[in-house]
Amino acid sequence: MGFAVAAMKMVHRGYIVVLLVELLVFCSFMASSATSSNDMSTAILIRVDQSGNGDYGKIQDAIDAVPSNNSQLYFILVKPGTYREKIVVPADKPFITLSGTQASTTIITWGDGGEIFESPTLSILASDFVGRYLTIQNTFGTSGKAVAVRVSGDRAAFYNCRILSYQDTLLDDAGRHYYRNCYIEGATDFICGSAASLFEKCHLHSLSEGNGAITAQQRGSTSENTGFTFLGCKITGVGTPYLGRPWGPYSRVVFVLSFMSSAVQPQGWDDWGDSNKQSTVYYGEYKCYGPGANRTERVEWSRSLSSDEAVPFLTKEMIGGQGWLRPAPTHFMRGSSVIVEF
């Protein structure tokens, strides 16, 4: 109470109401924290700025500052710049949002190649991660596997991000994931892994000058409820890429209501040299359009889905998104202060 009285004496009467509102928001937050450890409307704000005007100059240092096994939302705001870092979000640090303000000006870059799980520029091992307005790239080049982003935690979402490399760009490894308005670029198997993921309104661009595959999904059995769904996406390229090939015998990939440029290989799908997989994979298309969507020359073991068959791929139900996708926080905490805006 003494703090409130002292503060009121320092401001003009016209601002008393604003101060009271902020105090009420803070008190409401503290009260709700006592009853719920997962208040997703309020985040603890950490700023990363290479110029020295933030809390940290490196993104990894900001992640390291988040307590292990935290239950509160941490919002790490990354100011524009090129951050040359190899970053890991550990499994014991859930509920982190890593956000730039514009993907073209907030760039995370590294250049490791080789082993698929060791090369990523950014590795997400924790659950409930959100990435926003970032460019994440691996600059290793064209001579081997070079992952830009590895996502191995459950309930991860990326919005308005650019993910760039050449081979195995996005290792969509395990868990349920959501990508919206993202640009993903590569040449060979550049979206790969075992996850259950929905890509909505994303742009997939193939750098392959031949017929490298866009996807390599790794579903291993019919009991696994995993697969990649591309809803309302766009495919472009410099060569003639396949839509996908099977990393696992029961690989599942579906393109729905998506634009396919003339770059798409007319046969659409490849069996990766194993004809036995033709009878076990699930490769479908539904109401796609553009010159590359013509199914006249598609392999006979791919599917043109009916309206009923397409229903499970038209919503976020496959990833259970209604239960865990969260809006951006509306209030931010720094110490004991409530900040309504950045």
Automatic annotation (TrEMBL):
Q: Broadest EC class?
A: hydrolase
The record lists the catalysed reaction(s) as: [(1->4)-alpha-D-galacturonosyl methyl ester](n) + n H2O = [(1->4)-alpha-D-galacturonosyl](n) + n methanol + n H(+)
Under the heading Pfam families, the entry gives:
Pectinesterase
Named from the GO MF annotations, one term is: pectinesterase activity
InterPro entries documented for this protein: Pectin_lyas_fold (IPR012334), Pectin_lyase_fold/virulence (IPR011050), Pectinesterase_cat (IPR000070)
Q: Which pathway does it serve?
A: Glycan metabolism; pectin degradation; 2-dehydro-3-deoxy-D-gluconate from pectin: step 1/5
Any one Gene Ontology BP term: cell wall modification
Going by the UniProt record, its keywords in alphabetical order are: Aspartyl esterase, Glycoprotein, Hydrolase, Signal
Q: Per the UniProt record, which EC number(s) apply here?
A: 3.1.1.11
Domain Pectinesterase catalytic, chain residue ranges per copy: 48-321
Which positions make up the signal peptide?
1-34
The record's comment on protein family reads: Belongs to the pectinesterase family.
Provide the function of this protein.
Answer: Acts in the modification of cell walls via demethylesterification of cell wall pectin.
Give the protein name, as stated in the record: pectinesterase
